[in-house]
C-alpha cells in the first residue's frame, strides 16, 4: 500500500472564528460545528480539511505549542472563477475584519493573486488565471 494525502489539518486558537472565515470562502461547514472539538469537511475531489481546537490538541499532546513564526510551512490556496472574484473575495474577507497580507495584484506567473490571513495567521491565497 502507498500512503496518499487525505486531509489537511488546522489547529485553531479560536475555532468559531476559523470556521466562520472558511465558511466565507464557501466551504460547507455544518451549522453548530463551532461547539465541536474536531470538525471535518470533505472537499471537492474527496480530500478533507479538518480543524481542532488548541485545547483538544493539548489534551493528547501536553507539550504542543504553535509552530515557529516567520513564514508559513503549509499554505492553502483557493481557485476563484476569475480575476474579479479574487478582488471581491479579498474585499469581502478584509471587510469582515480579516487581515489582508497581500492585496490583489497581477502576478508575473499569469494569475490574479492575493493573500489574506485566517484567524490563526495562516496565509490563504486567492487566485485565478489572467485572461489571454
Explain what you see.
The chain is of the alpha/beta class. The protein has 2 domains: 7-60, 2,3-Dihydroxybiphenyl 1,2-Dioxygenase, domain 1 (Roll); 76-129, 2,3-Dihydroxybiphenyl 1,2-Dioxygenase, domain 1 (Roll), CATH 3.10.180.10. It is built from 3 helices and 7 strands. It has helices at residues 15-24, 54-60, 83-95; strands at residues 7-12, 38-42, 48-53, 76-79, 100-106, 111-117, 123-129. β6 and β7 form a beta hairpin. The mean pLDDT is 89.
Quick recap:
With 132 residues, the chain is α/β, with parallel strands linked by helices. The protein has three helices and seven strands.
Q: SSE order in H/E notation?
A: EHEEHEHEEE
Assign the CATH superfamily of the largest domain: 2,3-Dihydroxybiphenyl 1,2-Dioxygenase, domain 1
- Give the biggest beta sheet: 4 strands, mixed
Low-confidence stretches: none
Number of strands: 7
What is the terminal separation in angstroms?
43 Å
Helix and strand composition category: alpha/beta
Supply Rg: 16 Å
Mean pLDDT: 89
Which geometry do the CA atoms define? Answer: globular
What would CATH call the architecture of the largest domain?
A: Roll
Helicity, as a percent range: 10-25%
Strand content: 25-35%
If helices are DSSP runs of H or I spanning 4 or more residues, what is the number of helices? Answer: 3
Quaternary state of this entry equals: single chain
Strand order of the largest sheet: 4-7-6-5
